[in-house]
Each structure stands twice: as structure tokens, then as C-alpha cells.
Amino acid sequence: MTALRKTTIALTSDAAPFAIRAERSSDVVAREALLDACFGDNRLNRTCQRLRDERAPAEGLALSATARGRLVGTVRLWHVSVGGKPALMLGPLAVEASSRKFGAGAALMDHALAAAKARGHRAVILLGDAPYYIRFGFSGAKTGELLLPGPFERDRLLGLELSEGALDGAWGMITATGAPELKSRTVRARKALQPVPHAA
């Protein structure tokens, strides 16, 4: 099993301190705006989004980073089946540009992985840049036989075992297994981001 890394966050005198807490319903609009800013308008068409559509994140595993009462980062984990083995899929992880240098992304990752382990989850997978995620223990060592429901780059499919052997022999299609999400909340958030037309 790969040991989880502990992050030390150094706050300089000009840094805005941030806190990691459970995501709240009041975060939805700010979270959607942050994700749009980080990933662009086509983010809802990406392959991993197919595993999140109309699903609720895993209980207790949707986290927000806040600074001075403002949302500056977000991460969520989702229930999936990894070739028949239960696991979590992490993503998206997003942090606003001004907060990245203070370690908000690493803090969100460390909190999310520790919470997942504490809740008894055995493995986490994600689609992301190996040079960034390897420091958290992720690798492609046991994801080579896994597939996603759409195009993806093989070297970006990474896994982390929270329990030794959790991904041994994993193969086949990764599928969503989480509970359905209430559509109204997501629809309201997307509508709130729509520009309001000005009266003529």
C-alpha cells in the first residue's frame, strides 16, 4: 500500500489563510463558476463527466476550500465500479489561480484521501497529470487494463490503493455506481451562471 503524504501548508504574511470544510449547498454557484474558469465551457463533455452525470458525490467526500468567506477550491469523489471492484473516482479538483501557490490543492487532496480512507474506501482512481498526482501516491501500475466510457489518454488514468491489493487484477470498464443526484440543485446552479439579458 502506498503511504499517504502529509502536506505542510506554509502561510506567508501576505497569504490569505484558507480552510477545508465539507461542501455546502451555498457553494454550488461559486463551485460551478470556478470549474468553468479552470476547465472551460466544454468541461461537461469530458469523458469522466459521464461517470458523474446525474450522480451524487460519495457521502462526506465533497470538499471546499474557502478563504475570507469565499470559495477558492473544490474536490469531489464519486462511487464507481472498477472492473467489478468498488472504488472512488476523484475529480474534478480545482483551485483558483491566486490560491494555488499557498497549497490549497494539496490540502484538498490530503483531506479528501484521508476522509476516504477513514470511511473505509479501499481505492481511488482519477484521470490527471501523473507528475502532479504521483506525490499523493497515484500511479498507473494497476490501471493498465481499465477502460473509461469515452476517449482518454492511457497514461493519465491513475490509481491509489488505500488498502493493499484493492486494485489487484482490476480490468474492464469503469462504471458509475453512486446514488442519483437531485437534478434541481444542479439545474439551478447552471441557470444562476447564465447571463441576464439587459432590457432594451
TrEMBL record:
Domain of life: Bacteria
UniProt KW Transferase keyword: yes
Listed GO MF terms: acyltransferase activity, transferring groups other than amino-acyl groups
Organism: Bradyrhizobium lablabi
Keywords: Transferase
Protein name per Swiss-Prot or TrEMBL: Predicted N-acetyltransferase YhbS
Domain N-acetyltransferase residues, every copy: 18-163
Pfam families linked: Acetyltransf_9
